[in-house]
UniProtKB/TrEMBL annotation:
It comes from the Eukaryota. It holds the Pfam family ShK. The keyword Disulfide bond applies. Transmembrane segments: none annotated. This is ShKT domain-containing protein. Residues 1-15 form the signal peptide. It comes from Caenorhabditis tropicalis. PANTHER family: SHKT DOMAIN-CONTAINING PROTEIN. Keywords: Disulfide bond, Signal. Residues 103-149, 154-188, 207-248 form the ShKT domain.
Length: 248
């Protein structure tokens, strides 16, 4: 009888994030997920992730809750306390980062924010990430909050500029694209990675795709001015971070 009762009640009263506290914050009484923990999309379908990483007690990680992650998100063990098994965590990060509440550790979300951000990076919501008002400020100050780590501080203020690239050249649209389509149209200040698309395009002019970065640190380097630093030749910058620096 006790066993049956405990089956019903224990999971609901003892939801606790165990094993790995990445992407969580302490709210005063419990560790809870940050908005960035679940801000990304799963690489495979949500339905498949729900099968692979079924919530131990029906509640899945969400911003502000303390749902227990599926064990398979981080360990091969089947009971807590469970040691983190790096392979298991890597598989979860690659396929089902959202279902496992690990979004903050994926590449796009895993970079430093500025030292003194103008807003609290830990409380930025998904709707702010899509907001015309917030996006450019967040890209500069809190890139990790919205998955802007690979954007070098340069994002479009609106999210669908790419639908019609001709607007970048349309005479009557210049005020608009300068304000809202900075990244797509290469109008960011040259201190950001994408601004260099216009200033350093001397390499080979315009192109629509770039060779892959050969370093995983390009986002951080770009934030420190690597893309525009003439200490390095254009060829060196292209060899390391062509995509991040948008060098043809
Ligand atoms: C966060 O993740 C890293 C890499 O998986 C791990 O080494 C570290 O112990 C984790 N930190 C916490 C607080 O769980
Ligand atoms: C902290 O989070 C837990 C779990 O979601 C919740 O029950 C509790 O009320 C929260 N505490 C505060 C101070 O917000």
């Amino acid at each position: 009888m006790y066993f049956l009762l405990s089956l019903f009640f224990v999971p609901f009263t003892h939801a606790v994030i165990g094993g790995d506290l990445n992407c969580t914050t302490y709210n005063g009484t419990a560790f809870v997920y940050t908005p960035a923990a679940v801000a990304c999309d799963n690489a495979i379908s949500d339905a498949s992730c729900a099968v692979l990483y079924a919530a131990p007690d029906t509640l899945y990680p969400a911003a502000g809750n303390d749902a227990e992650r599926a064990y398979a998100c981080y360990t091969t063990a089947t009971a807590t306390p469970a040691a983190v098994v790096p392979d298991m965590k890597q598989a979860a990060l690659t396929n089902c980062a959202k279902t496992c509440g690990f979004c903050c550790q994926t590449d796009a979300y895993n970079c430093p924010n500025v030292q003194f951000p103008r807003l609290n990076c830990a409380t930025i919501t998904r709707s702010q990430c899509d907001s015309v008002t917030w996006r450019t400020i967040i890209a500069t100050d809190c890139p990790s909050a919205c998955g802007f780590c690979n954007q070098g501080g340069c994002v479009d203020a609106v999210t669908n500029c790419g639908n019609d690239l001709s607007i970048c050249q349309t005479v009557g649209m210049q005020d608009f694209v300068n304000t809202y389509c900075q990244r797509t149209c290469g109008r960011c200040p040259s201190t950001t990675a994408s601004g260099t698309a216009t200033t350093s395009s001397g390499s080979t002019g315009t192109c629509t795709s770039y060779i892959a970065d050969s370093s995983t640190s390009c986002a951080a380097w770009a934030a420190n001015g690597f893309c525009t630093n003439t200490f390095y030749t254009a060829a060196q910058r292209r060899a390391r971070c062509a995509t991040t620096c948008r060098i043809c």
